[in-house]
Amino acid sequence: MNIWLRNVLLLGQKEFKSLRADPVMFVLIFYVFSVAVYLVATGVRLEVSNASVAYVDQDRSALTGRIVGAILPPNFKPPREIGQDEVDERMDSGDFVFVLSFPPSFEADVLRGRVPQVQLNVDATAMAQAGNGAAFLQKIIQDETSKFVLGDEAQSLLPVNMIVRTRFNPNRNAVWFSSVMQIINNISILSVLLTGAALIREREHGTIEHLLVMPVTPSEIMVAKIWANGLAIIVAAILSLWLVVHIALGVPVAGSIPLFVSGAVIYLASVTGLGILLATFTTSMPQFGLLALPVLMVMNLLSGSTTPMESMPGWLQTVMQLSPSTHFVTFAQAILYRGAGFDNVWPNMVIMVGLGSIFFLLALKRFREAMASAQ
To answer: What is the CATH number of domain 53-157?
Structure first.
């Protein structure tokens, strides 16, 4: 056992030297956990922000002016008036996301108790912005019309007064969500790529033959690659979480960092084993990249870090339970957003251990076969 640990330690040191001697990989790790996290967090918006709005006012009444005046930044740009004959052309050219059309006698019909119709044309190319923006505009029209008819105290006359309490992200700021989830996705990507690339590099540089004549076993080689590359990733992720997310972006971290790190270590063991498993099916770096790309896309897009698991079909939710990324996203969200403790997240940790063991054993079997064929 002592010889096994010593070999793993020495081989891991070799991996560190290889990583240090590869400036491109070093720059990639720095970029992914610093610049990329910041750019994605500040650039990707799920909520409505600065949406362009136009309106066609065929009534020109106080009510339509009141509605248009309530469409304000930062959700919307100042509304611009256009003619009825310009609507199709301006939306086809992408000038406006929303176009409101007020019919003639709109205010008069409202005061007479009729139900006039306001047409809202929506460019649904960006579906999230279109859906949320349409709901916001509908709420503005309803509120301003009620206040106009019943007075500015109309809200207090409603039979139900709904009080909304937003927890964990009071301002519903997308930066709080996207920044942390970007770190989670980057951990997945680099864990697979670094370990897989380390194995492919041994083949391309011819050093795999050196390992074959040394008194080391496939398990020692695998574990050395896993702990060395995993340590580099986990250190970079912790620094990114603290320096980029918490300090630069001002995102609060609710839960225990040591508990998050312990779960991240378990997850790294799972996905690094997956990286080696994928590398055993390829003989060159381009092949490995083409094989890893669809796997990483599915892991990241369907793990719950981009869209909620509840919005996916039932069968797909069941299938994604076989991916360690699904359980790590649930684990990370519970700790970093909601301050959950070990009693809440231990099931996810157990599942990640189980899936990681399966990936490791499969990768070890494939790696032994590959080394045996190379002798």
So the answer is: 3.40.1710.10
